[in-house]
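Quick question, first post here. What does this chain look like in 3D?
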Amino acid sequence: MNALVLKLFNLASFVYLIVTSVFIADFMRGSMEQVYVMPAPYAFSIWGLIYLLLLWLIMKSFFADEELDRVVQGIGLWFPISMILSGTSVVVSTTPSILFIALSLLTLCVVYTIIQGLGLPSSKYRVPFSIYLGWTSIATIVAAFVAIKGNGIEEILSIGELGWAVIMLTAGGLIALSFHFLQKDYLFPLVFVWGYVAIYLYQDSALIKFITGGFAALLLIVLVVNWFKTKAK
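> Answer (accepted):
Ran it through. Tokens below.
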């Protein structure tokens, strides 16, 4: 695809994401507040940062240097598709929303993998996608629980909501930890710290507080220690 056309498509997809997420979306907060993995409302303000970073990347691409041109061409249509899927997930009903947000997560994984494979001299163009991918990962977990709750499902494989919340939050924390070591990425796990602290503050369950608080503390310790080790080299 022509580079200019691709950049314009990125911009159009971003506008769609903003319009659907900010002006059209109905987050159905009454239902969402009842799930064990729901973070405090302030946590969703991270979308503002994500939007700003995506806008910066898209606008800068029109005046791109060679490095950013490689990124834009490399990720191709995967990037705008992820924004379209993400925007659509907030305007459809609860059940299909999980499909759209999960597909958005998958496309972002592809985008991130492509960027990592480009062997760029710096990680600055990875930053928006690290944060976007991290928060979409948490949003997918939340959306799944909201969809299950909204359909009146109380147990899956004889495990109730609290049990699955423990499983998914533990899995998420381990993924964030592994992601840091495998990708040398500090921002992806920091997003999980942000989300898990918000869940800790919002939920009353002692078990949920133990898991989210424990992983948030563990991730912070690991990130700080590794950051100092890197600086010491």
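The chain has a mean pLDDT of 92.
The longest helix spans residues 206-232.
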